[in-house]
Structures are given as C-alpha cells and as structure tokens.
Amino acid sequence: MFLSAQELQRVKQILRTHVPTLTVWAFGSRVHGRHLKPFSDLDLALITATELPWDKYTALKEAFSESDLPFRVDIIDWFTTSAHFRAIIQQEYCLIQTPGVTE
C-alpha cells in the first residue's frame, strides 16, 4: 500500500474512533500504485450491511478533512454501492480495519 506508516496509523486511528464496528477496505491507486500521484486520494470502502447513518458518515468525512493527512480521503458505503463497482473493488483491495482487532 502506498502510504507511510504514520499516515496509515492516522487513518486507522480515525476509523477506530468513528466506525470501530465496521470492516474497512482501501482500494484504488494508493493500493495498486497505478496512476499514483503524490496528491492521489485514498479510497475507503466501509463494509456495511445496512446504510451508514448520515451523521456517522459526515463525522468521519469531517475527521479526515480536519486531519493532518496530506491527501483527501474518499469514503463509500458498501451497502449503497452498485454491484458493478463492488466487483471492481473486490478485484484489488487492502484490508485496513477488522472490527474488534487493534494493533
């Protein structure tokens, strides 16, 4: 994965604070490295069985926006994602968080 150890720890800390009960996958250029630029965003899929409540989504977005991470973080809700896009993500992703597992 194309993040520094410090960046990855910060991402995990924010996720543990806001969505500790969800599995989270990273996908896109910061995972596979193709078309990666220094300003490339980090794409995260929140693996949900039901739609993520809007207040949780906005709090998480705000936490990433206000963080010291040098890139934008895009978040998708698995439950509301199309089957086609899910299939693309499942081809190449990196597990970022498993509920109940801390490092």
From TrEMBL:
InterPro entries registered for this protein in UniProt: NT_sf (IPR043519), Polbeta (IPR041633)
Residue ranges annotated for the Polymerase beta nucleotidyltransferase domain, each copy included: 10-92
Origin: domain of life: Bacteria
SUPFAM superfamilies attached to this UniProt entry: Nucleotidyltransferase
Protein name, per record: Polymerase beta nucleotidyltransferase domain-containing protein
